[in-house]
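hey m, so remember when u said the tokens were messed up on ur end? i reran from scratch. heres the input so u can diff it against urs
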Amino acid sequence: MIESVQNKFVKQIKGLQQRKNREKEGLFLVEGIRFVAEIPQNYPILFYAVSHQFQNKNDISVYQKRSQVFVFADHIFSAMTDTEHSQGILAVCQKKENTEFHFNSNGFYLLIEEMQDPGNLGTIIRTADACHVDAVFLSKGCVDLYNPKVLRSTMGSLFHVPIFRNVDFISCISKMKQQDIFVFAAHLKAKEYYYTADFKKGCAFLIGNEGKGISDETAQKCSQLIKIPMLGQAESLNASVAAAVLLYEAVKQRLS
């Protein structure tokens, strides 16, 4: 059992709480019983880390069949994790970056530009998974996909939908339009309401930054600007709520 904060695995796990170390090592942390169970069989796991209490209450041989399992003293494990009430298990995983994608003319896609809030990004990815979106594209400037708060908010959906990082949206939108995919941008200056648009054919939704919205350059590249009715005094919706409204309208139309 590992009982020292100076242990190399303790230092590595604590280091992976920071983006620069995740980028440098190509690793990220998956924490919690349910989230760890969602890791696909083809996903490379460097090792598992469990608390002494977790080992006493669970059969860790299930995890040992797949990778090494290191047991940490309870107070050491608590000090390593980002969660307030840890479940006592995490996995150190290698990143698998998606690089190539072929658009389907009947596809259903989501583009997210410079989103900064980890909870918003994770929630949107989870909603995209629920709506069976074919792929999610993140622009440069987005919060790190492997941020622990993003990962927790996805509730495992990170492993269910293809996600592409640091995407050039001008090029991406051009490729979509070449495949007759209509790209809709949620924009406050739009004249058309979202429910008047046709989402049954190939389509993509562009969601912008929480504070400044979509950049003018990207908005001009889109096929159509759409908006959600705002009847009260609020100027806008939370980005994850707006994304859910649009995605489920597309689901509704495609199911009808």
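this time it looks ok to me. The CA atoms of residues 17 and 233 lie 39 Å apart. if urs says something different then somethings off w ur setup not the seq
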